[in-house]
Specification:
Residues 42-56 have a biased composition (Basic and acidic residues). The chain is of the alpha/beta class and 149 residues long. Helices cover 36% and strands 25% of the residues. The protein is built from 5 helices and 7 strands. Helix 2 (74-96) crosses helix 3.
Amino acid sequence: MSEFSVGNGAWVLVGDGRRALFFQNHGDAELLDLRVVETRVDDNPPTHEQGTDRPGRSFTSFSPGRSAMQNTDWHELEEERFARAMADRINQAAESGELDAIAIIAPPKALGEIRKELSAKAQSKVVGELAKDLTRHPLKDIEKALTRG
């Protein structure tokens, strides 16, 4: 069994850096019946399609040399922005009373970004977290992960 319970009416977010699926449980904690509340998909092409192809250069005043700036990972920045958008949606739903409880399933990095952006009220609604990427898995796999951990 998982370490947390997703009761009737609870929300479940299954997300990653590009896709967010919000479900609501219409069953109970043992026999889940997840139904889609909202789906979000972010168009996030690879970095080479989003930004410049060469990093800038910097010059220092104390030496004649110059050094290259680190490449900006536009793809990574967009994934972080999308995680913030998922957290914003949870914050809004918690504030409005739209949700009383939520379980969050996301890869570790996305889960950390979401957790960091949740308001205190939204954090109090989180009944559990699962650090897995299940966004492309069938619903039965998601339900199984929630009932068996």
